[in-house]
Structures are given as C-alpha cells and as structure tokens.
Amino acid sequence: MDLSVIIPIKDERDNLSPLSEQVREALTPLGCAYEVIFVDDGSMDGSFALLEKLAAADRRVKVVRLRRNFGQTAALQAGIDWSSGDILVTLDGDLQNDPADILVSSKSWPKDMTPSWDSGPSVRTMFSFARFPVSWAIG
Predict the structure, then answer these.
(1) What does the pLDDT look like over 13-31, one tens digit per residue?
(2) pTM for the structure as a whole
(3) Domain count for the chain
(4) Residue 131, pLDDT score
(5) Beta bridge pairs of residue 79
(6) Edge to edge, what strands does the sheet with 124-128 contain?
(7) For the residues 75-83, what does the mean pLDDT come to?
(8) Do residues 18 and 95 make contact, with C-beta atoms less than 8 angstroms apart?
(9) Is-contact 2 85, C-beta < 8 A?
(10) SS3 label, residue 5
(11) Cα 124 from Cα 87, distance rounded (Å)
C-alpha cells in the first residue's frame, strides 16, 4: 500500500459523504494505491452507520470504531496502528482541511518518496494537515 489517509471523526455524520468524495477526488490523480481509514472516536450521531455504508461501497475505505471517546490523539494512533501505507496523511473530519492539499503536498515530498510508487519509500513518513502542519518519520 502506497498511501494511508487517516481521518479521526467524532459526530461528523453530515460531513462524511462530502469528505469521502473529496478525498477520492484528491487521491485519484496521484495514481497510487491508497486506503482511507476513518476512526470513529465514540460518535453518537449515527456516524458509524454511515461509515459502514461508505466502506461497503468502496473497498479502499476502512473503519475503526473506538468503544468510547478517547480523544483525537488516541484516534490518530488507532488509525496509524491499522494503516498499511508507506506514507501516512492525516486529515480532520470536520472539512476544515482541504483534501486537495494532499496532491499539492505530494509535489514537495522528498524525491526518494515520489514519483516511484512501485518501489515505495524505505521510511514510513507521516504528513499532517491539522491546524499546525507536522511531518516526521516514524519507524
């Protein structure tokens, strides 16, 4: 797997369908194998039921459900733990981050990480599009 997009959510039912579509539109031009991992952090608004439908409609969508609200950090860690991508990207589930930024950011990734999706990078790298962008290598 080339790319994992990790999206922690909490009571974001109304945002999930548009977000899923925006992520799909943003990732298609990259031409890589990807997965989108939604982590439901104890939602009470029916988000999980909608996530199940999204996952049933697209095999690239995966859902992790936490049994209660543990907070964004724990939700992100759960997504990282379930991810299989060489490159990890995080987005917020509230539509505050534009998934199109993934394509823009991919142009500035280190040369050894792109454009050769076939061989894959040797280091698993994480890019965050949270309010304070962070990127770091994880082992």
Answers:
(1) 999 999 999 999 999 888 8
(2) 0.79
(3) 1
(4) 35
(5) none
(6) 61-66, 34-41, 3-9, 87-90, 124-128, 134-138
(7) 94
(8) yes
(9) yes
(10) strand
(11) 6
Phi, psi of 18, rounded to the nearest 5 degrees? -65, -40
Q: 115: cis peptide before it, omega within 30°? A: yes
User: 56 CB contacts (<8 Å, ≥6 apart)?
Assistant: none
Residue 135, pLDDT > 60, answer: no
CATH number at residue 99: 3.90.550.10
For residue 95, give Cα distances in angstroms to 98, 111, 130: 7, 29, 11
**Judging by DSSP bridges, how do beta strands 34-41 and 61-66 pair with one another?**
parallel
Whether the CB-CB separation of 132 and 98 falls below 8 Å is answered with: no
The one-letter amino acid code at 35 reads E
Show the CA angle centred on residue 53, arms to residues 99 and 19, nearest 5°: 15
Domain range for 102 is 3-138
Of 15, 136, 19, nearest in space to 87 by CA: 136
Give the residues across from 90 on adjacent strands.
Answer: 6, 128
List, in sequence order, every residue forming a beta bridge with 7; answer none if it has no partner.
38
Cα 96 to Cα 38, 111, 117, distances in angstroms? 16, 28, 28
